[in-house]
Design a protein that fits this description.
elongated, mainly alpha
Length: 99
């Protein structure tokens, strides 16, 4: 079984080498043109990722702002309800009671 694995790996390496040779022989551009094309594509990819990251960050900031505003509104409502309840409780105890 180990002989079979070794020969499979050997065939893999042979195929890899043959593919590299064929790729170099049939390359549509020279090395410098290929490197320039790769650089240009890498720059396009970098700009795309920057744009996506910027959009994602903006979305997260907007979502965070919405959550903070919602929490603020809930806090105000709770504060007002507590204040109203306190006023009602103090006016009821301060009012004279008829016995």
């Amino acid at each position: 079984m180990s002989d079979h694995d070794g020969s499979s790996f050997g065939w893999f390496l042979a195929g890899l080498g043959l593919g590299a040779v064929v790729g170099v022989l049939y390359a549509p551009r020279s090395g410098s043109e290929t490197r320039e094309a790769l650089r240009a594509r890498a720059e396009e990819g970098r700009e795309y990722v920057r744009g996506q990251a910027r959009e994602q960050a903006t979305e997260w900031v907007d979502r965070g702002r919405d959550v903070v505003n919602q929490q603020k509104d809930q806090f105000r409502a709770a504060y007002e309800a507590g204040r109203q309840a306190y006023q009602e409780a103090t006016t009821e105890t301060a009012a004279p009671k008829n016995l």
